[in-house]
Known about the structure:
- The chain is an alpha+beta fold.
- The protein contains 4 helices and 9 strands; from the N terminus they run αβαβββββαβββα.
- The protein has helices at 4-15, 39-48, 110-135, 187-192; strands spanning 25-27, 58-61, 65-67, 76-87, 99-100, 105-106, 142-144, 153-160, 165-176.
- The strands form 2 sheets. Strands 1, 2, 3, 4, 7, 8 and 9 form a 7-stranded mixed sheet that branches.
- Strand 8 (153-160) and strand 9 form a beta hairpin.
Amino acid sequence: MIGIPYINDLFRAVLSKSKAIAGRFHICPRYGAEISADQLEQVLKDDVKPQTGAKYPLVLMMPPRMAGQPGQSEWTTYRLVLFFLTTSYLTSDGQVKWQNKATLTSTHSIDGDWHDMHRAGHCFIQALQHIDRHHKLHSNFFRLGLKSQKEFLIDPISMIGLDNVSGIRLEFQVQLFPGCDLEDYNLDDLLSLTVPVIDSHPEHKL
Length: 206
């Protein structure tokens, strides 16, 4: 069965080629709480392992939401939310971004971070489109977007968590063909089992 591990592997491979993100990609089982906790430091060490020492920009993916109709020829739809994040005002090593030497403050505004991370997110979608066309994934088991909804949504976010990060929330959908094998059941066992005909809970006064 093809599913979330495939999405993880595909996105990680694509983002490893990004000049901006440089492979700093992580799935957040705690729905992004990692960004506001001390454990992010350990997440980066264990999962991202930055080669240059830089922690940002990075991409965090929330647990996907799935919708589908089980059957032999049905695709499963995954609604994906990714955060493209960078540090606000300071670089990942604590240096002031685009420093105004007279005031020792940053001249790189939050809307500049939105713009930079928007560019990174948009390039990521374009990279997926190129890979989809080149490898003809859509004809086998992967579709970027739905027939009725090809667009992606972007929301700016500002100064979040202990690391004071800003960037964008990118939402889009993909479809995967999971396969039609009934992996966890023997069909003969299902056909021979005894099906309940009444509710086993006794009626009683409420």
